């Protein structure tokens, strides 16, 4: 079965090569600036359970060394690996080239490694979204009912490239002393567009409403005096990431010492160019017979005649987010002999600091009396079929023509609104800094049948934030911080002399300490059976900007986002008990029960607020009170022998979670935690070929928490199936075909009741055909 292991390693490499930033799901694209949630189901490791975060680990599992993936350079190494590939998505139907180069070479005590990978893709994503509004319809119900307020039908396109480089140098100063420098660089660029039609039922008058069978949803209705919003944007993103670490390690039979330093600079620039056109006085109707793609009909206008869609506003925005990280670590351990028994004792300190700076300039251009309509800027575009041919989207804006039109008619047909430009620009100005210092002690011992490890980690976290707050003059905003008296817009200094609001930069700070114990026990019953118990504590600190005091109002989308200055860190106390059973030569079963006690957990809150008679969705991150997650984890792997293949390996992982989260006024399941998660990996290999199949499924989970259970957003079950096939022509040449998201199962969610769908997204299936040369 040795050959099976070699092929498995190749399978892992092949899988990693397809997990690049150009191929991310829409959900992950939106989370690029976020920390991961360690209790969310989608981030649970689908391998043998019982992972143990001891005292040597940061409480969040954060370690800058995990950012780097190249192993220690072997002595007398000399290798070359070249790959060329073609990338294809079934909706976009475009073929895009990419490739990679891996080099390794040693020169006596010096080992060098270098990797470069060019990833690229062109993709199309189709999306239906909706906002449901609570409205009073006494003729239907004595309680609030939910109206399909803003159904949206969209197509997104992505043209993405990413150049990723990694390098490492290991220099052996003495037999047991090594100096390591490792670095990585990413240059990511994409251009994305959105073509969206939105029925603004929420601004009209409702009639002929029909109450659905659930007793709370208006399943169909007629809307008078409403609007259509035709929204288009082009977004250009440029991301540059540079990370470096320098490490000195001394390894010996009786102990080791490591001193490491880390520096990272991360810049994300986004030029967002959104256009809005409005059709007024629209009479429309809808029904949700197909809840995943409700039918919306405009009764008194031709939906596909864009000559009556009048320009509303253009709001180009340039945002630059800069993260700068520093870290320092010292690890030390020694072998001691106590009462003729060997005990390993370790200690360490680490310090890390991250600063985020967000700057923005948004220019708001409104219409003038010399109006124009969408017909003037569509070029040769026409209606397009989306959602697997189930919806015909009207003609879209031509971005090249619209920019030319803006340049030619800026003075006559585009009125720069300095007040809104000022207000929307400052809403995206903030700084956030987080500094964590920690120290730990750790000890472990291997006895005949017993192994124990115990430790204690002390961490101190300090945060400083600065964000912009605005409000009407009677709120006396300027007394809360430093008044914002001017801002540079479009190359000119604009003084804050507006009557409708005052603005100020408001600072905030927080600091807290945590003492985090850990304990692990293992008992070897016999050569095949081992028992394990572990207890450890973790933290989940707030996102870098969630604690900033800010308030952003997006008028066209009727959305408000706010900071939560009083957020506390989430603490998680983990208990695990299980067994590991090794049977035959290639069989393993690992299973156990776990209990996670969670305090001050985070959740995305969505509430509503009326501004000037218009209802806005208000989103913020809040702390829940407490809760728990408990359940079962299991992992099974086995290597089969079949006459038709040299090896067949299967791995099956399962996590069952029973959870509860106390919000203070009601109890729900833990946000982002599914009850069931299952993963199945199959690897078939022969002398010339290898087939790998990766299947994962997780059941529904709460994504966003509303004001009531009727407004909670539930993410439906997630199903993913990836496959790859590799053919080896000889020891040097091979080819591989990888298929991702083969089933193209849509990402769907609903609000409170299954009939109220708020998201239905199709990401498409992607394929990568590679030719590989190894020397």
TrEMBL record:
Location in the cell: Cell outer membrane
Alphabetical list of Gene3D superfamilies matching this protein: TonB-dependent receptor, beta-barrel domain
Principal subcellular localization: membrane
Domain of life of the native organism: Bacteria
Keyword field contains Kinase: no
Keywords, comma-separated and alphabetical: Cell outer membrane, Membrane
Domain Outer membrane protein beta-barrel, chain residue ranges per copy: 409-762
InterPro entries per UniProt: Beta-barrel_TonB_sf, OMP_b-brl_3
Keyword Ribosomal protein attached: no
Protein name, per record: Outer membrane beta-barrel protein
Gene source species: Shewanella yunxiaonensis
């Amino acid at each position: 079965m040795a050959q099976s292991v070699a092929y498995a390693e190749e399978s892992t490499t092949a899988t990693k090569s397809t997990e690049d930033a150009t191929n991310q799901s829409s959900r992950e694209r939106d989370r690029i600036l976020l920390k991961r949630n360690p209790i969310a189901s989608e981030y649970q490791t689908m391998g043998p359970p019982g992972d143990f975060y001891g005292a040597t680990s940061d409480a969040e599992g954060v370690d800058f060394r995990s950012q780097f993936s190249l192993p220690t350079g072997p002595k007398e190494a000399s290798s070359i690996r070249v790959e060329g590939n073609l990338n294809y998505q079934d909706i976009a139907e475009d073929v895009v080239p990419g490739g990679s180069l891996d080099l390794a070479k040693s020169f006596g005590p010096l080992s060098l490694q270098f990797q470069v990978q060019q990833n690229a893709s062109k993709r199309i994503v189709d999306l239906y979204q909706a906002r449901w509004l609570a409205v009073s319809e006494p003729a239907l119900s004595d309680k609030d009912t939910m109206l399909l307020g803003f159904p949206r039908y969209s197509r997104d396109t992505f043209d993405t490239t990413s150049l990723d480089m990694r390098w490492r140098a290991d220099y052996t100063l003495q037999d047991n002393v090594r100096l390591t420098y490792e670095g990585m660089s990413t240059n990511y660029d994409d251009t994305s567009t959105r073509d969206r039609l939105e029925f603004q039922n929420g601004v009209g008058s409702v009639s002929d409403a029909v109450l659905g069978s659930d007793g709370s949803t208006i399943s169909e209705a007629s809307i008078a005096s409403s609007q259509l919003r035709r929204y288009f944007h082009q977004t250009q993103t440029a991301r540059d990431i540079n990370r470096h670490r320098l490490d000195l390690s001394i390894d010996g039979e009786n102990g080791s010492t490591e001193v490491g330093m880390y520096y990272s600079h991360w810049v994300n620039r986004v030029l967002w160019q959104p256009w809005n056109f409005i059709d007024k006085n629209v009479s429309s109707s809808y029904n949700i017979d197909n809840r995943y793609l409700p039918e919306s009909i405009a009764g008194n206008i031709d939906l596909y005649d864009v000559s009556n869609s009048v320009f509303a506003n253009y709001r180009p925005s340039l945002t630059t987010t800069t993260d700068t990280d520093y870290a320092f670590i010292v690890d030390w351990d020694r072998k001691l002999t106590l009462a003729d028994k060997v005990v390993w004792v370790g200690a360490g300190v680490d310090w890390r600091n991250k600063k985020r700076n967000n700057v923005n300039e948004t220019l708001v251009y409104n219409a003038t009396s010399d109006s124009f309509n969408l017909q003037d800027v569509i070029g040769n575009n026409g209606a397009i079929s989306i959602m697997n041919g189930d919806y015909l989207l009207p003609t879209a804006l031509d971005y090249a023509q619209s920019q030319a039109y803006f340049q030619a008619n800026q003075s006559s047909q585009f009125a720069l609104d300095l007040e809104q430009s000022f207000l929307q620009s400052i809403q995206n100005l903030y700084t956030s800094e987080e500094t964590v210092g920690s120290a730990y002690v750790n000890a472990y011992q291997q006895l005949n049948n017993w192994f124990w490890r115990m430790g204690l980690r002390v961490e101190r976290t300090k945060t400083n934030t600065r964000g912009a707050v605005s409000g009407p003059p009677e709120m006396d905003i300027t007394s809360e911080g430093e008044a914002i008296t001017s801002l540079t817009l479009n190359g000119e200094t604009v003084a804050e002399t507006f009557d409708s609001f005052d603005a100020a930069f408001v600072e905030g700070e927080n600091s807290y300490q945590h003492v985090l114990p850990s304990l692990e026990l293992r008992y070897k019953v016999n050569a095949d059976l081992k028992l394990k118990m572990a207890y450890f504590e973790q933290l989940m600190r707030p996102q870098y900007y969630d604690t900033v005091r800010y308030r952003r109002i997006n008028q066209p989308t009727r959305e408000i986002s706010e900071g939560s200055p009083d957020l506390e860190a989430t603490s998680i106390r983990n208990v695990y008990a299980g067994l590991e059973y090794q049977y035959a030569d290639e069989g393993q079963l690992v299973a156990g029960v776990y209990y996670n006690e969670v305090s001050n957990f985070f959740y995305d809150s969505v509430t509503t607020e009326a501004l000037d008679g218009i209802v806005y969705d208000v989103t913020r991150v809040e702390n829940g009170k407490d809760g728990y997650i408990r359940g079962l984890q299991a992992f099974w792997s086995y290597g089969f022998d079949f006459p038709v293949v040299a090896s067949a390996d299967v791995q099956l992982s399962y996590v069952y979670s029973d959870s509860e989260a106390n919000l203070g006024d009601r109890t729900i399941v833990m946000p982002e935690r599914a009850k069931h998660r299952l993963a199945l990996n199959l690897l078939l290999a022969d002398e010339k070929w290898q087939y790998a199949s990766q299947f994962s499924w997780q059941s529904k989970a709460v994504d966003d928490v509303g004001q009531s259970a009727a407004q909670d957003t539930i993410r439906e079950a997630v199903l993913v199936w990836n496959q790859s096939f590799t053919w080896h022509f000889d020891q040097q040449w091979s080819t591989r075909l990888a298929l991702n998201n083969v089933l193209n199962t849509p990402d769907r969610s609903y609000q409170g009741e299954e009939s109220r769908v708020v998201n239905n997204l199709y990401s498409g299936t992607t394929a990568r055909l590679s030719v590989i040369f190894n020397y």
